[in-house]
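Hi C.,

You asked whether I'd gotten around to modeling the 469-residue construct. I have! Everything is below, sequence then structure, no commentary in between.
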Amino acid sequence: RVSHGGEDAAATSAIERGGGAASTSERGGDAAATIRFRHFWGRTKREDLLAGKGEYQILSPVAELGFPFIPGQVATGYVGWPALPELFPTSFPGVKTSRDDFLVDIDRDRLLARLRDYFDPDVSHAAIRQLNPGVMEDTARFKGEKTRDILRRRGFLPANVVRYCYRPFDVRWLYWEPETKLLDEKRSEYFPHVFDSHRTLVSQQKPRREWQPPQVISQLGCLDLMDRGASCFPLYLNSDSELLLESEGRRPNLSEKATAYLSGLNAEPAALFHHALAVMHAPAYRTENAGALRQDWPRIPLPATHEALLHSAELGRRVAALLDPETPVPGVTTGVVRDDLKGLAVFTRIDGGPVDPQAGDLDSTAGWGHAGKGGVTMPGRGRVETVDGALDIYLNEHCCWRNVPASVWEYTIGGYPVIKKWLSYREKALLGRGLTIDEVRYVAETARRIAALIALQRSLDENYATAKC
């Protein structure tokens, strides 16, 4: 018997071999076991268990899913579909700095100013420790003064200030240092494969909570893009000298199985990449396979025809563009905004007057975030009001984004509520400034991107139904 969680909302599972709950029999020396499962929820779970309440469910654990001893929803044929690494064999964990407050910033100029001081031989260790204590603090694998001495002798690498996908829809600046442990996990094997804004799919093998659909990024990715750790699958890889493809020096990140499949349908690598994305963003895929997706890498059904693959890939391209905040999307973030999105997340003063940045109208003071222990940003409650079935999201007491659908506000990627998470890092007390006009506009654009993703869900479900036939 295994107990999970606390007293208020928890399950008690009983898996027994032999005795009254499961029976064994000897067949030619081999023991055959029946596995039965039941669980109990709530404050009375212990009493219910002791009283013998509840019916057992007979389980048949699946080897391909790691023999899970709990029931789970799995679509017919799921275990026969190739897992994500069976299609795209090369993946990399995201970067882990362990010194975000020094190496990562929303503002490039502020990051550069810190780096100039850090690499300046005339600035003492004591001065850096006072300005940025975290980068000088010794740990088991990092020695602050020794590391700085080594790097000052070599010098600053300005080309290594790069775009960095820090959280979903939150792209920042990172100083990617190739030597020492200034970056805790620099992922040197990953960095060369981020080039020319080409796309990378971000997923995870076994989530801590519910499985989340993948992200698509065109920048270097953080380990914390996904709760419990992000794995980054580039569409293309920079090739070794022995593996050069034509004049580009790149090769598709495809397995032999994937290459043979695409060859049989006369299709390109990008078609499979975007098809996989479209399938994994179908709500029906997530629901039908919830049990399996908690156990291992997602598995992808492959369309039988060229036309079905291309149709799915086109949907996946639309999803990819909406997921990547640095990819403009006509009708959503550029050009004439679609009618169904036009009235969403409109930024306004609640008194109807003009917005005045000089008067603090762009300052985030509604309590969306605060500094926690060790400089970690902790989310706050903020201020949300319901008006006519939609939400007004307040930046401060004077201004808000009006008419944000609840489904958009609650939309999660990687385990994070996207807009709320973005706001939590930009409370004025943390950011040190008010928002810019572009940042206020960015929140509205993010809301429209999410609404457009939600609007695609029916088409994505229909596409998934076709793909698995």
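If it helps when you're writing up: The longest strand covers residues 161-167.

Thanks,
B.
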